[in-house]
User: What shape does this take?
Amino acid sequence: MAILFRSTPAATARWQPLLAELMPEHEFRFWPEVGDPANIEYAMVWQPPPGLLASLPSLRLICGLGAGIDHLLRDPDLPRHIPITRLVDPYMTDAMSEYVALSVLRLHRQDLDYLAQQRAQSWEEREQKNACERPVGILGFGTLGQDAGRKLKALGFPVAGWSRTAKEVAGFVTYAGGDGLDALLARSEILVCLLPLTTATEGILNAGLFARLPRGAALVNAGRGGHLVEADLIPALDSGQLSGAVLDVFREEPLPKGHPFWSHPRIIVTPHIAAETHPPTAAAIIGDAIRRFAKGEPVANLVDLATGY
Assistant: This one.
């Protein structure tokens, strides 16, 4: 039995020594060195080339190396009968919550304005709300959203969450479905997107959604670049409907040089670093999933392809 590993060259260099240490009972093959495809039963992958997984006739389990699986669903030849696990790692959850808290605080404390004042050498105090006066809405209220919500709530922000289907979460107001989305947007002065990317959420951050937020609201997108209709963002900022945006994910990554997001004064750009996969913890989690699958035991975080997560 062999396991195929495929990620970026930099990530492969970080993972390779850990896999030999944590899973010594397995043979690893590091793409593009596949060897005999018939010997590969498991695949640990991030953005595999289209057709790669379908070329492995003995494949039994696909292990995604990130929280989302949209990178797999883009493959038209994805063998959809093969089970897929997505990575749920407490380390990554903590990292995402750090990013969300930082971004919300930057928007709440008017960091964009003060940075502009610093560049202009202008000393001006701005009127400031308290956190308890700044409602935050989180789109995607699963593991990541709830953890971020708890940490924002500890900072004093009123937090509500929205999900595709109804769920009750102790200590939070929650919304679901189309009517619930309208209600969440109406109360959210800062909107955080942590949704999985599916056909239902593609382009959800658009001009129509921005218009349903309170005027002057702000946006954090740490979900996927496909959630945002990029052409709709700058007009919303320039009109004052939105006051600022923090973006960690983009439709094209790396974000191309010359893209207007780089230079817009109301946008903060980060290079998809909100919750990077952490090999020392992720390797142990994926290794346990493979061992459990091989023994016929239940495996956590199996993907439902009908929902896309």
Remarks:
- The chain has two domains: 2-89+277-294, 90-269.
- The longest helix spans residues 90-108.
